[in-house]
Specification:
Oligomer: single chain
CATH class of the largest domain: Alpha Beta
Distance between the termini: 32 Å
Strand content: 5-15%
CATH architecture of the largest domain: 3-Layer(aba) Sandwich
CATH superfamily of the largest domain: NAD(P)-binding Rossmann-like Domain
Radius of gyration: 28 Å
Number of helices: 9
Helix content: 55-70%
Largest sheet: 6 strands, parallel
Structural class: alpha/beta
Number of domains: 2
């Protein structure tokens, strides 16, 4: 029982919608109890009156007949009605935000043993069909995604966000990924993303694609496998990933 109350308390503390809802419920029950005692009616009638009052329905079949009852009614209206309004607003906002995030791909993927592509470039539309043909699940993480050039495939999940942001990378679960491919509009983007990806999944199989040879060397100095754009053809990159896959089969990815 104590654990149940602790879970409830953590939810109420973490979410304003829960906070307002619980406070409104407490206000309704408190008003109902006070009304039933002051007006000498059953507690059920008190709850009925409190709910009708809090929802501003106002049937008028149960009304206070004393100064104390009217004070209880005013206190209930001035506290519970604003709390319910705030609660409805918070829940509506949360639902709308969740729907919008799902439409934009800003959600947590539940993929496991998947391939992750961090960043977006002209390479991706050419590479994605071959990747999806060889692996059942691919997660793309990028800020600017041209969805019109991506295949409509059930195994592709798109997360919209900065691939160099640790909070965004956490949604892709790099620690559970089989392979991580990093591309970008510039070598600086690739380098920053590769550093964060390596930090998030130090044991992961990471392959970065950079333009200049010095960027490739810098990535390799950091312990990150890298190739230059001269080797960006999808067949070559997939062969490189599959070679890593054969090696990774000897040691399963960390869970």
């Amino acid at each position: 029982m104590l654990g149940l109350f602790q879970i409830l308390f953590n939810r109420v503390r973490a979410r304003p919608a829960w906070h307002y809802t619980v406070l409104a419920l407490v206000g309704v029950l408190a008003g109902a109890t006070a009304f039933s005692l002051d007006q000498h009616v059953s507690w059920f009638v008190g709850v009925y009156w409190a709910v009708v009052t809090a929802t501003t329905v106002g049937y008028g079949d149960v009304v206070p007949h004393s100064v104390g009852g009217r004070i209880i009614a005013m206190a209930t209206m001035l506290t519970v009605i604003p709390l319910l309004a705030a609660s409805f607003a918070e829940w509506s906002s949360a639902l709308a935000s969740l729907h919008l995030r799902r439409m934009l791909g800003m959600h947590h993927t539940r993929a496991e043993d998947h391939w992750v592509i961090l960043g977006f470039s002209s390479l991706i539309p050419h590479l994605m069909p071959d990747l999806l043909a060889r692996h059942p699940q691919v997660v793309l993480v990028a800020e600017n995604v041209d969805r019109g050039h991506l295949p409509d495939h059930a195994g592709m999940d798109v997360l919209v966000g900065d691939p160099a942001n640790p909070h965004v990378l956490a949604k892709a679960h790099l620690e559970r990924a089989r392979h991580i491919l990093i591309v970008g509009a510039s070598d600086g983007d690739v380098l920053m993303t590769a550093i964060e990806a390596h930090r998030a999944a130090p044991a992961g199989a990471i392959l970065a694609v950079a333009e200049r040879a010095n960027a490739v060397q810098a990535l390799r100095d950091l312990g990150i496998d890298a190739v230059d754009t001269q080797s960006w053809l999808s067949t070559l990159i997939i062969e490189r990933l599959e070679a890593d896959a054969a090696h990774a089969d000897d040691s399963p990815p960390p869970r």
